[in-house]
Amino acid sequence: MWLKPEEVLLKNALKLWVTEKSNDYFVLQRRRGYGEDSGGLTGLLVGTLDTVLDSTAKVAPFRIIHQTPDSQVYWNIACGASLEEISQHWDWLQQNITRTLSVFDSGEDITSFVQGKIRGLIAEEGTSASDEEDPERFREAVLRFERLFGLPQREKLVTYFSCSYWRGRVPNQGWIYLSTNFLCFYSYMLGNEVKLVYPWDEVSRLERTSSVLLAESIRVCVRGEDHFFSMLLRLQQTYVIMQQLADYAIVRFFDKETFNAEHPLANPLHITQRALEIHARNQSFRAFFRLPQEENLCEVYESFLWVPFCHVNTLGKICVSENYLCFASQDGSQCHLIIPLWEVRILQIFLQTAKKSVIETALEKKNQAVSTEALMNVFHPHDAENLDPKMLKERMKEQSWQIHFAEYGRGTGMFCTKKTRDLIVRGVPETLRGELWMLFSGAVHDMASHPGYYGRLLEECMGSSSLACDEIERDLHRSLPEHPAFQSDTGISALRRVLTAYAHRNPKIGYCQAMNILTSVLLLYAKEEEAFWLLVAVCERMLPDYFNRRIIGALVDQAVFEELIREHLTQLTEHMTDLSFFSSVSLSWFLTLFISVLPIESAVNVVDCFFYDGIKAILQLGLAVLDYNMDNLLCCHDDAEAVTVLNRFFDSVTNKDSPLPVTVQHASATANDKSIQKVDISNLIKEAYEKYGDIRTEEVENMRKRNKLYVIQTLEDTTKQNVVSTKAVLYFNAAQLDELYMLFKRQHFVSCYWSVCSPALQNHDPSLPYLDQYQLDQSQFSSLFNLLQPWTTHTHARSLARSAFRLLDENGDGLVNFKEFICGLGKRTLTQESFTEKLKFLFKLHLQPVQGAVYKSDVFCPSGRAKVDLQEYLKQWQEDLQRREENIKDLPRINQVQFIGLTKTLYGVFHGDEEEESLYRAVARVTSLLLRMEEVGRKLQESSPQKMPQNTPTSTAQPETSPTLPTSPETETLAEGEGDQPDSPVSQQETAPSHSDITPTSTSRPSTPTSSPTGTSSPVLDTPTDTPSSPSTLRDGDWSFSFEQILASLLNEPSVVRFFERAIDTDSLIAHARKNQLKDAH
């Protein structure tokens, strides 16, 4: 049967295939072990390989591969179970394809034509390129997936494959399961079980690699550890799906991108392989043709386009979306065309009417305050009578473009060809620059589909105030200050409006430095509304993730730049072992498109190329700059010398054909230095295209995806290392702190795995200091706290976690950051061997919250997006940790219901311990002792009221019956689950599970109130446990205990002291939490 063309790197992979027939374009092969040599050792070995290494691939014994002429790349296009079947395919190729291929000049064109024909045959047969999944078989795989890995049933399995996992040189044959949030692998052979479960959000590297042992494999790097997976077939399909799932995790969890309800990836609980393919196809379609984000690819057809200027038919594909009909020739660069459907002549009557109404609406709503002229036309109007040589060259450029327009069309329906690129490289005329920027960037489509949008934005943000507005005002006069347009209110006002409108449109980005410089240049050549849409195209489509606080997009492209340096400038790579220098020095190149390092008259030529070819043009120019200065860079001994070399080079770049007046052109420091050779920007750009023009846009996009994982995980690792290096090591060692941070971070993501647009995602803010970046709400905290707390409290677990959250949330924002979490966990529970500290922690859990309390940590917990001095922040926090020692005398007293809750918690803590019985008896004795002390104190106070100081409150007469016991929401939750409390081995008189049981062991208590040593009277506790109560019923006569009293009583019980001073195995608790964190998410 015909197969979707899939690349095969080795013609005779592992010598498993034998050639039967061949010609210049195709090869028919038979797999060893089948046919004539099916018997013997060879047949057994090949059969074993097919069974063990890839049991589900069902390797066909015959296949046909297509060879790209003058290349070592082969494409698998057909397979067959018998020689007769494969021979039919071979004969068809000989009769219908082979003769046609001889007319093509390029090997790439031949391969593209063959691929198109094969896909057409598959479409005609009504079969898909890959095997259709058997529903029953897939359901069985889902059941295995749930049973093997213990993940929640909500986790959606996308697909699975048979593969080998390599540990060293030993393969483990098993199954790889790809789900929405996890990469899983399972193998069990000869008693050796291998089980892997890794979240996609922890993957830092994902790439195809090859080695001496393995022809090709997929490398997955998680937390610095490499894992290799190999398979004989479907390797590319597996890799693509893994890449899509990893990218989906990045988009959801780090970019916090949301999808509308109709989007195929809107619901993570219903992700399918087809949904991933549709999303990837739409993305590629929009990126290639620079269309609005709302456009989705509907249909694709292979066709020939009649090209009038060449008088030939060009083979390519027609791509149809809701509003556009697009064509791209087979190689993607020869010719492409975009036709808005409302301009198609066959629909002229209807669409002209619709278009007219749109234009009229736009004119009616036009804001008169908006500038309708490019600033260059206002401050430097075109002089048609100027016969200056530079102006004559400018007119020649204009004539070349007018001839191009006459031949290839103008506007949205223009044919874009190699000739168009050649004209771009030579430089765009000043008068056409704004028009062509709009066309090539796709901003013209955005503006056409959103009439009046910019004016409405200005009305909405009129008079608004925000942090972005303040930053914009600060940078307005730093934007091209040497240009007259921005020395006047006209230019400054237009710049303010565009930047403010965009900040209002996209608050996720708001305003970022470098946007002002870019927008200034856009305003010089485009009208104000056009400049706004150009900025939208750059920030949201052409340079994604560039303009945010972590400039992830720029860092990704710098990583791509490093890869290209290693590939194309090997001499420089050998000289400089650390290429990170080029990343740091080239950051401004990418952020400002060379505008900040080149004179404005030269920089605009770079912007011309950028709008036509995207980031590929910037990468090419960067390589050309380094190549031009290769000799000087090889002589440098340190980074400072290299920076000087590059700065002097940029100062020497000129634009000899620029018609701009001298007053506008940038005066470099070397302008009058005749010893320095000048470099014309047009020649530099031409050299960049000649040397590095073979870099393909698709290749750059794949490198971007691959490096985005690495960049994000590197930033996350930097955050983690900064956390580990703090003085929190007072409580934990570095390895423990590392694991705790990963548990804390994973808990944040686990709660978001199975939610659509989970609000918890907003609790991650990379702009905050790194100790505060991840925060957990009460539900997230409770799950993690119960996994890490060292005591088994059973029914009290939820209430204790709730109280611990309230205690640790010192700034009262309803969130606990890692700093608060680690302080509470280390200082109060896991690492403390002090009996007093642990008891104090339990004591404070049962106190009612103090309303309006202000804690010291408020001073050191910055919030919002204000800039923070991280070193000062850390210094203050460390000092706060060292001096924050609570005096036990400052603790408030605990009332009767809170004391009952504390007693129940102690019973829960002791449950299951080997000394459980003695611990129960100890708590009963302490409880009885404290109540007796309270009773004796009341009797003494009652017998000698005249000796009491005047300022000591005296008890008032109380009725014979006991008052209603007070409770609070906190104490009610602490007392919940009372009926489920495990039975104590001691007698009822020595246990205290209810209010009425807290009485002296053998003495009946009087009904009359007595006074305590502190002057607080206490009634008898014979109220039923189900008596309704509320804080409003608290009376002055209710008794209470201080922490000192409880501590002193418990210190007399050696078993209790031994229990709390017992060393806690922190590593075991962390390992337990790591193992059960996902199970706890059920």
From TrEMBL:
This is TBC1 domain family member 8B. Keywords: Calcium, Cytoplasm, GTPase activation, Metal-binding, Repeat. The lineage of its organism: Eukaryota, Metazoa, Chordata, Craniata, Vertebrata. Gene3D superfamilies: EF-hand, Pleckstrin-homology domain (PH domain)/Phosphotyrosine-binding domain (PTB), putative rabgap domain of human tbc1 domain family member 14 like domains, Ypt/Rab-GAP domain of gyp1p, domain 3. It is found in: Cytoplasm, Cytosol. PANTHER family: PROTEIN VASCULAR ASSOCIATED DEATH 1, CHLOROPLASTIC (PTHR47666), TBC1 DOMAIN FAMILY MEMBER 8B (PTHR47666:SF4). GO terms for molecular function: calcium ion binding; GTPase activator activity. SUPFAM superfamilies: EF-hand (SSF47473), Ypt/Rab-GAP domain of gyp1p (SSF47923).
